[in-house]
Design a protein that fits this description.
By secondary structure, the chain is an alpha/beta fold. It contains 20 helices and ten strands. Strand 8, helix 9 and strand 9 form a beta-alpha-beta unit. Helix 17 crosses helix 19 and helix 19 packs across helix 20. The site of adenosine-5'-diphosphate (ADP) has 16 residues, from helix 6, helix 11 and helix 13.
Length: 443
């Protein structure tokens, strides 16, 4: 039997049964390479594709093979990274969800790009990830709602869609709806205008899982809040799982009714923090793998240390650097990459020696005290301030700041820097100290 012919028959058979986006995004990305001893081998671009195909479609593929050939044929995968660059361009684009109107069963599907499998877990997000797994195990019961909150680009939407996709994998008949609070508002306003409230309510209240992104935009919209309050109660009443995201803790969202806030807070709230260095490196590694690019670890570390909050921007920088390297036909060396990164760094008109001397002067201590191993309590704040200033004002990598401070570990530097970042918003003494030191630095 010709493997290509069989596989294309299988695809033809499957095509009407899945949504066009998923067909194009997953199934048509695989090619048949051999059929021997009742085993069909398919080539795919990455382990990620293999996992997705296995989880989503393996049963369907096996059944279809049986139907077509009347034999028990097993399926195996072979990873061929050269496929990635060619075919992934056809993957579903930025749309986070797709609602395919496939009669008679409405099939819900989410952008398959965002999964739990390709969500990199680190210290900044492991609690949120554990919550996500718990919900996939047991939706609608223990943690309802789940509220994920954290800054921009830290992975809230990704994790939320990852839960949705995992639930759909487990049970494709599940109705999973993704929307944002803005979309909800627009739908609501349109429904009132067009006298289609019943339609609207059906759409939002009939689902098993509601994923609602960026609830901070409910702020100040009283009518919508009222409607959402009832949506929420209806869903919770029938044990539908609700997952919400917000760019801040619910207590900090202004102009949202208290009763709605208390609903938001009534389940499990977990924050996703800004990713630590190791997580950023791991994410960059994963993104390279997905794109079929190969950058040395040192290069990834350099890129990871150049940006420390927003993963979306980090990914953007990675892509930019890969493109620049290609456009200039340069190899991915530390030198080449750091020259790209440096162009975006604003030079300060003082250097690290001045930082050290000003901090020592300010606290009336010696340079040896500051950089030495002594762990006396009084030395902690000056050290942390120095870490913060080196990283934030001079854009030093945490590794380099660690070296300057007597060979301290980069994670120690990150901890110190982040502590000051926090305290400068909450602790008046630290604020005052920082301002005075900065003034001295600029003199
Ligand atoms: P948010 O909703 O918090 O603003 P997103 O979920 O849109 O952020 O994430 C921004 C980008 O960063 C996306 O491309 C996402 O895939 C990626 N990203 C964020 N966190 C992770 C992670 N832990 N592992 C892999 N990719 C991540
Ligand atoms: Mg988001």
């Amino acid at each position: 039997m010709d493997p290509n012919k069989i596989w294309s028959e299988v695809l033809n058979e499957i095509k009407p049964k899945v949504s066009p986006v998923n067909f194009k995004g997953w199934l048509s990305q695989a090619d048949a390479i051999s059929l021997q001893d009742n085993k069909l081998t398919l080539s795919v671009g990455s382990a990620f594709f293999e996992n997705q195909l296995r989880a989503r479609y393996l049963n369907l593929i096996l059944e279809t093979l049986k139907k077509i050939t009347d034999q028990d044929i097993s399926v195996d995968f072979k990873i061929d990274p050269s496929k990635l660059s060619k075919k992934t361009k056809d993957l579903p684009s930025e749309d986070f969800f797709e609602f395919s109107s496939q009669p008679p069963n409405l099939s819900y599907s989410l952008n398959p790009k965002y999964t739990l499998e390709n969500f990199v877990v680190g210290l900044s997000n492991n609690v949120a990830f554990a919550a996500a797994q718990a919900i996939v195990q047991n939706p609608g019961t223990s943690y309802n709602p789940l509220l994920l909150y954290g800054g921009t680009g830290v992975g809230k939407t990704h994790l939320m869609l990852g839960i949705g996709n995992a639930l759909l994998n487990k049970n494709p008949a599940m109705k999973v709806k993704y929307s944002s609070s803005e979309q909800f508002t627009n739908d609501y306003v349109a429904a009132i205008k067009e006298h289609k409230m019943e339609d609207f309510r059906n759409r939002y209240r009939s689902v098993d899982i509601l994923l609602l992104d960026d609830i901070q935009f409910f702020s100040g919209r009283e009518g919508t809040q009222e409607e959402f309050f009832h949506t929420f109660n209806a869903l919770q009443g029938k044990n539908s799982q609700i997952i919400l995201t917000s760019d801040r803790a619910p207590g900090e969202i202004v102009k949202v009714e208290d009763r709605l806030k208390s609903r938001f807070q009534g389940g499990l709230m977990v924050d996703i923090q800004t990713p630590d260095f190791d997580t950023r490196v791991a994410i960059l590694k994963a993104k390279c793998q997905e794109k079929g690019e190969n950058l040395p670890e040192d290069a990834l570390k350099l890129i990871a240390s150049s940006l420390d909050t927003n993963i979306r921007e980090l990914e953007g920088r990675l892509i930019q650097i890969i493109q620049k390297l290609k456009a200039n036909n340069l190899e991915a060396s530390i030198e080449n990459i750091s020259s790209f990164i440096q162009t975006s760094v604003v030079p300060a008109n003082f250097d690290y020696k001045k930082v050290i001397s000003v901090v020592c002067n300010y606290f009336n201590m010696t340079q040896k005290d500051l950089t030495g191993p002594n762990r006396q309590k009084e030395l902690v704040l000056p050290r942390h301030l120095t870490m913060f200033l080196l990283c934030e004002e001079l854009n030093f990598t945490v590794q380099k700041a660690g070296q300057i401070l007597g060979g301290r570990d980069h994670t120690t530097v990150m901890h110190g820097r982040d502590r000051i970042k926090r305290l400068m918003n909450t602790d008046r003494d630290v604020q005052k100290t920082l301002i005075e030191i900065k003034q001295r630095l600029l003199q």
